[in-house]
Please model this.
Amino acid sequence: MPTVRILDSLAQVPAADWDALDDSGNPFVRHAFLEGLERHGCLRADWGWTPRHLTLWEGGRLLAAAPGYLKTNSHGEFVFDHAWANAYARHGLDYYPKWLFAVPYSPVTGPRLLAGGEAARRALLEAIARQADEDGLPSAHVNFHTQDEDVLFDARWLPRIDVQYHWHNRDGWADFPGFLAAMDHKHRKNIRQERARVARAGVEFRRLHGDEAGPAELDLIHHFYLQTFREYGNAPALTREFISHIAREMSRNIMIVIAYHAGKAVAGALFLRGRDTLYGRYWGSDAVLPGLHFETCYYQGIEYCLEQGLARFEPGAQGEHKLARGFLPAFVRSRHRIADPRFQPALRDWCQEEARSVRRYAAALATRGPFRDPP
Model:
């Protein structure tokens, strides 16, 4: 039987060994990304994040791993379970700490059970359940796992779904005009007008990979990131050191867009790139210009995908406004193992009703898409 080891730092695992567990090309589960969050001050216990990774070993060889965190709140997860926590509190019970397997601050679908085969991934889930029970944890959660991981979970893991908006190069479009040509007249006209307003304002854009961006450009991206968090009154988690780290260690997985107006940088966005997918993450602006957000965060990303031959673009969580710009509803998944047998039936019913509601919502959205021939 493999040996289970709980790690409080990914620095305890060689990067090459960790990365060898996954061949999906997803940048968020790379050692450089996850270990960089730990090393550069993005995860703190007083913010509710304590690294607690579960790994399986055979002697000195790493067989499988699941990036995990002990959580004392539900911030930065994007799978909302505050109602569950409130229900526990009303009954005088503790919902926290919980054990979360996810990528911090990243509502991005990707592998969560890192292993070479199905047997090893099932062994990971069994080890998670066993360890959670032995440690007396109220629950364990796997957020934004892939669709092909669904079959690995047994009935104790309650399924939840939600909707995001993703762009797909459905018809093999070669350029932006080809993409627009697939839309109906109204939506095609609206996008052209949005882009024209930004161009008439004299805004120019630069797209840079991590190894093409110098300290000044990375300073700008971090500045714009902080600006957005200040506007919404939230505490920013990503440090300037982390931005430098991923730009250096994952240089071709990082793409930044900077908008310039009258020679001054006025907005920027940070993207990560996988093998066939672009992921929009953070944006910010010092200027209020019509259409600037849509151009910086969406249209520049779509153009990049078309130029680079990428099949998908996931621009982030939520936002029905994305639908009119070519991002169609897509389901995202999570699983939840509740220890207390009194709560399991009630939460199972809750999840089933939520899923019915989400599917109705997605079906309604599908009728409002911008394309002449809906998928």
Notes: The first strand starts at residue 3 and ends at 7. The chain is about 35% helix and 25% strand. The two ends are 47 Å apart (CA to CA).
